[in-house]
Amino acid sequence: MKADRAVGNWLILLAAMVFGMVIGGGHARTIGAGFSIQEWKPITGFIPPMSDGDWARLYGLYQDTSVFQAHPISLDAYKALFWPMFLDRCWGRLIALTFLLPFAYFLVKGRISRWLGVWLGAIFLAGAGQATMGWYMVKTARYPGVMSPPPEWLAPHLLSAMLVLAVLLWTGLTVRRPEPVPVPGVRVLRHWTSACVLLVWVTMGYGALVAATNAVTVFNTFPLMDGGLLPPGFLSMHPLWVNFVENQGTVQFCHRVLATVTAVTLVATAVMGLRAELPGWLRDLFLLMAGLVSLQYLLGMTTLVLAAPELGYVHELNAVLLFATAVAARHGLRGAVRG
Amino acid sequence: MGASWLGSLVVAEVRGRGLVSGWLFGVCALIWVMVGIGGFTRETGSGLSIMNWDPIVGAIPPLTDAAWQHLFVLYQGIPQAQILHPGLELSGFKTLFWPEYFHRLWGRMIGLAFFLPLVWFVVTRRVGVKLLGWLGVLFVMGALQGAIGWFMVSSGFFKGSTAVEPWRLALHFSFAMVLYVLVLWTALTVRSPEATPVAGQFRLKIWALAAAVVLAVAMFAGTFVSGTHAIDVFSAVNGVGVGMPPPAWPSAGFFSDKATVLFNHQVMAFVTTGVVLTTSVMALRGNAPKNVRDTGLAMAGLVLLQFTLGVTALVSQLLDVGVAHQMNAVLLLTACVVMVHQLRGAAR
Fold first, then answer.
1. Per-residue pLDDT at A339
2. CA–CA separation, A86 and B108 (whole Å)
3. What tens digit of pLDDT does each residue of A89-130 get?
4. Domain spans of chain A?
5. d(CA A39, CA A201)
6. Taking 80 as the threshold, does the pLDDT of residue B3 lie above it?
C-alpha cells in the first residue's frame, strides 16, 4: 500500500467527527432530550419543521411517549428539547456526506485500492447500522415506564460508536504511514497498550450504564459507598445478571472498580512508555495518555461527589479523547520488535 | 563545575561514601515514618495524653498500675479530658496514651540511629572533623525539634483548650521538613559529591526549585488544615470547601477561619500541581538525562496521587486518608529535592 496523506487525513477527520457526534449525543442525553424526535427519516429528516402544522405533528408524536405522559411539557419546552437532538442527527448526516463525497472522488482518482474500498464500505455500513440502532433506542420511548434511553441500548450504542471511531482512526493512521516504524525492545509495552485500549473501552461501557441508570445520584461518597466497600443491595435484583445492568449501586460499583483498574494500568503503561527509548511523537502520546487518564479519574470522582450530571458529560467526552489516544499509541507500536 | 562547599567536604573527608550516605538515607526514612506516626497521633487526638517531658527517662513506659494511675490522674486534670472525655476509663486513656508515647519513642530512636553510627564513623575515621561539625548541627536541630514538640504539646494544656495551637503545630511540622530536607541533601551529596554539568537544563533546574518552594508553601498551608480540623466544614451541598473562595475571604482569620484555611491550602495545591506537572513534562520532553527523567516521572505520579488523596480525604472525611496524604507530601518533596540536586550542576 502506498502512503496517502490526503486519504489518511480524511479518515482521521471522520474519526474526529464521530467525537463530535458524542458531543451532540451526550448533550442530548444530559438534558433529557433523547426521546424528543419520535420519527426517523434518514434522508429528508434534515429539513427542520417550518410550519405550525409540522410542529404540531412532532409534538403529537412526542405525546405518545411515557416520559411525556408522566411529565407533560408545553410546546415551547418541547422545542428546546427538539433542537439539540435535531442538530445531533444532522451531524450524523454530515458525517455520511463527508464520507461519501471524498470516497467517490478518491475512487474515481484510483487512490483507493480494491481491498481498502471494501473495508471502507464496511465502515460506512457500520455507521449506518449505528444510526439504525440509535433510532430503535429512541423508539423504546413508547414502552410503558421507559423514561429515558434504557441501559441495554445506550451502552452498546456508545461502545459501537467507539469501535467505529477506533477503526477510522486506525485505518487513517495506517494509510498515512503503511510501513510500521520499527521500535526495538518494546514488545511488552505493545501488549500493555492493547490492554489499555480494551480496558478503557469496557470502562466506558460501564460509564454508559451509570449514565443510563442515573446512578450518579446515589452513593455520592468516595472511596466508600455508604460506609462500606460494597453498596447495600449489591445483588438484590433477580435474575442475578440484571444487577450488573440496572441496579444503580451495582452498576456504580462496577464502574468504580473498572475505572481504578483502568487508571492503574494506563499509568503503569504510560510510565513504561515514557521510560522506553521511543521516538518523540510516540513518547508524547504516552504523556498525553497519562495526563488524560489522571484528569479522567479526578473528573469521575468530582462528578460523583458533587452528583453533577453536567460534569459527567465532560467526563464522557474526556473518555473519548483518552480512548483515541490509547488507540493511536497502540498504532504507533505496530512496529514493536524484540530489543 | 566543581563541588559545592558540602561536596568538597565530602570529597576531602568521607571514606566509604556508600555506607555513610546509606546511613543518612536511613535517617530520612525514619523521619518519614515519624511524620506518619505524628499524623496518626494528631488524628486520634492523643497528642495531649502525656503531661510531662522527660527526654531520657520518658522512654520507660508505665510498668505498674500505680504508674498508670499516676499518669491517668494527671490527664484528668487537663481541660481536654474534662471537655472531650468526661467519663473516660483507664482503658480508654491507654488508647490515647500509646500513639503519643510511640511518637516520642520513635523520636528518641531517630536520635540514637543518628548518634551511634556517627560516633562509630568518627572513630573509624570515615567522617572527618569539619563534616562532623555539620552533622553535629543536624543532630542539635533534631534535639531542638523534640523541644519544639513539647512547646507545641504544652499549648494544649491552656485553660479551655482541647487541642494544641495550630501555629505551633505548623512550626513543629515545618521544622521537621527543614531538617528532613537538610539530611536528604546531605545524603545525596555524600552519594554524589561532584555536581555533574548538565547541558541545556538550567530552566528545568529553576522549575524544579520553584516546584519545591511552592510545595513547601502548600504543605505549610496544609498544617493549618490539620491544626484547625478545617475539613469539618466541607459540604458539597452548600458549596463550602469545593475550591471557591469563601464569602469572607481573606478578612475572616487567614490562619484560623476553617473555610479560609481550607481554601488557602486548595489554592496552593492547584499552583503546586501545575508547577510540578510542568516541571515533569519539561523533564520528559526535553533531552534531560535518564535519571532526571525518572525523577520527573516520580514527581508527576506523586503529585497526582497527592491531589487525589487530598480530594479523597476531604470528601470522605476519613482521617486515615489524611495521614496518607501527609506522608505522600513528604515523598513528593523528596522527589522535587532530588531533581534539584541532580540538576545542581546545570548552568545557563
1. 65
2. 73
3. 999 999 999 999 999 999 999 999 999 999 999 999 999 999
4. 1-179, 180-339
5. 30
6. no
- Give the CA angle between residues A109, A115, A117 to the nearest 5°: 45
Q: With pLDDT > 90 as the criterion, what percentage of chain A qualifies? A: 94
Per DSSP, what are the bridge partners of residue A184? A337
ipTM over 0.95: no
| Chain B residue set in contact with A, beta carbons under 8 Å | 236, 242, 277, 281, 284-285, 293-294, 297, 300-301, 304, 307-308, 311-312, 315-316, 318
Query: Which residue bears the cell 437532538?
Result: A85
Closest CA to A305 of B201, B8, B313: B313
Give the E-state strand segments of chain A in sequence order. Answer: 183-184, 336-337
Grid cell 480524511 in the structure block, residue: A10
Burial B90-103 (b: 16+ CB within 10 A, else e): eeebeebbbbbbeb
Taking an 8 Å cut-off on Cβ atoms, the answer to whether B284 and A307 are in contact is: no
The answer to whether the pTM exceeds 0.95 is: no
C-alpha cell at position B87 = 467519663
3-class state of residue B269 by DSSP: helix
**Grid coordinates 560516633 are at which residue?**
B119
Percent of residues, chain B, with pLDDT higher than 90: 82
Q: Which residue has the cell 494511675?
A: B69
* A274–B307 CB contact, under 8 Å: no
To 10 degrees, the CA torsion angle through B99, B105, B107, B113? Answer: -140
3-class DSSP string for B74-142: HHHCCHHHHHHCCCCCHHHHHHHHHHHHHHHHHHHHHHHHHHHHHHHHHHCCCCCHHHHHHHHHHHHHH
